[in-house]
Amino acid sequence: MSSTAAPAPDLEPQSVISSEIAAIEAGYRQAGAEETQPRLDYPPYRSSLLRHPTSDPLEVDPEAIELWAPCFGDRDVDPLEADLTTGHPGEPIGERVLVAGRLVDGGGRPVRGQLVEIWQANAAGRYSHQCDQHPAPLDPNFTGAGRCLTDEDGWYRFQTIKPGPYPWRNHLNAWRPAHIHFSVFGACFTQRLVTQLYFPGDPLLALDPIHQSIVDQRARDRLVAAYDHDLTSPEWATGYRWDIVLAGGRSTPLEPAGAA
Ligand SMILES: [Fe+2]
């Protein structure tokens, strides 16, 4: 037996959202000023209109924050935490993938010893979280969270399952492209950065207001990993390469924490 959730009649169709996306991008191209980061109030992403920040970031003393913020060191992060396919009684369902890349500064220099955390939906597009009531199956062998520290050359590396797309009710039949959320901590808690990795060739990218809220195509493309045959593990996993660039003209688009 299968069931299909009834669509909400009050949601707008994709055509309305796509028209808005196209108009905003045309305006951006006409203005001619390069933007490399997502727009925080982006009308096609409906909930961003009410919840986007309206004040400048609050300046805080990093040292004062460190008195009560979480802290970690090499000994707190077990290498096994970078493998999201283990730690359960059985194998998770889905396409096994290796995701790896370098964390670098604007000059291409490695950023070493940084805590990289990821979280994601399972192969069916379902998060292992009580807030996710999407009627897709949970996988008892997949939790969808992992972390590691970058090595001396700035490399991070995860083994996981390729996530599925999921609906998110921004508009009628809205689906998030397959993605993995990334968080990178700097030298202290106040430097945390959050972004998302996408997979190449996903037809949902062009339809997704969150991805399209980065209005510059080249900046958008910097969130899309590249299939890398050299990263694959023979007869075990496919491989994707995605570098995170913290500054400069090719910096990775970042977002406020908490996006869908
Ligand atoms: Fe997500």
Features:
Protocatechuate 3,4-Dioxygenase, subunit A; alpha+beta; five-stranded mixed sheet; four-stranded antiparallel sheet; 260 residues; Intradiol_dOase_core; binds fe (ii) ion; Intradiol_RC_Dioxygenase
Can you describe this structure?
The chain starts with 13 loop residues before the first helix and ends in a 15-residue tail after the last strand. It is an alpha+beta fold and 260 residues long. A hairpin with an 8-residue loop joins strand 7 (179-184) and strand 8 (193-198). The protein has five helices and eleven strands, in the order H-H-H-E-E-E-E-E-E-E-E-H-H-E-E-E. It has a single domain (14-52, 76-245), classed as Sandwich (Protocatechuate 3,4-Dioxygenase, subunit A), CATH 2.60.130.10. The protein has helices at 14-31, 48-51, 62-65, 209-212, 217-221; strands at 96-104, 115-119, 145-149, 155-161, 166-167, 175-176, 179-184, 193-198, 226-227, 238-241, 244-245. Strands 1, 4, 9, 10 and 11 form a five-stranded mixed beta sheet that branches. The radius of gyration is 19 Å and the shape is globular. The structure holds fe (ii) ion (FE2). Fe (ii) ion binds at residues 176, 179, 181, 260. Pfam families: Dioxygenase_C (PF00775), PCDO_beta_N (PF12391).
